[in-house]
Write a structure and sequence with these properties.
With about 240 residues, this protein is an alpha+beta fold. The chain is about 30% helix and about 35% strand. It has three domains: about 5-45, no CATH class; about 55-155, Immunoglobulins (Immunoglobulin-like, Sandwich), CATH 2.60.40; about 205-238. The protein contains two helices and 15 strands. The model is unreliable at about 165-180 (pLDDT under 50). It comes from Polypedilum vanderplanki (Sleeping chironomid midge).
Amino acid sequence: MFESVPSNISYIILKSVEPSISGKYICEISADAPSFHTEIVSSEMEVVDVPQSKPIITEIKTHYRISELIRGNCSSQYSRPAANLTFLINDMPITTSIRQYPTVKDESRNLVSNTIGLFYRIQQQNFANGRLKISCIASIYNLYKERADKIIEIDQPTVFSASASQSFIDLPSSHYSSYHDSYDSASNHNDAQIQADMSSSASTFLNNNRQQHQQKFILECVFCMFIVLKLLLRNASI
């Protein structure tokens, strides 16, 4: 089960240990005759299977705005026992705004993964030179300690440069001339069209007016002829 290497009266060294040898170990010391006084001391020993890599930070973006809420997770790789996890902001441990999630067990290897969540609202003082560092430390006793870091930058509101309006002011003269030439040409065309429409309307109005006068003149002539004819008939009857 395990290999014992040379030890002495003060300590014992075990090599190639397995998880199954975890448990209580007892040390018994007995005096020689005639007292044969005996002392017994016991202690628990746990065989640790440390993670094979660093913890992982997920769900945290690279840019945030002031007062925005950070929601993120830190997960340890599979180990035995589960690693202890701690979030830090700018190397300062965060004890509040932390949520502990249920561990996930790998039944085939009898290993466990741990996950904690961070829910922290960013403040202006968190940013130093526009940057903020979020860290996660995973540790198991004094045998394993690793950390993962993520740098966050402040997300400033977008400011549009005045160069956007310069694109029109700084147009080449040829482009500027062609733009105005096309505008003048279109304007002249529109003016000519309006004048043509006005001339056409005036001509139509004059023609209609002339026709009305002609019709009125014909009616007056007919009426006069009717009166003359009536007088002639009256004289003839006398």
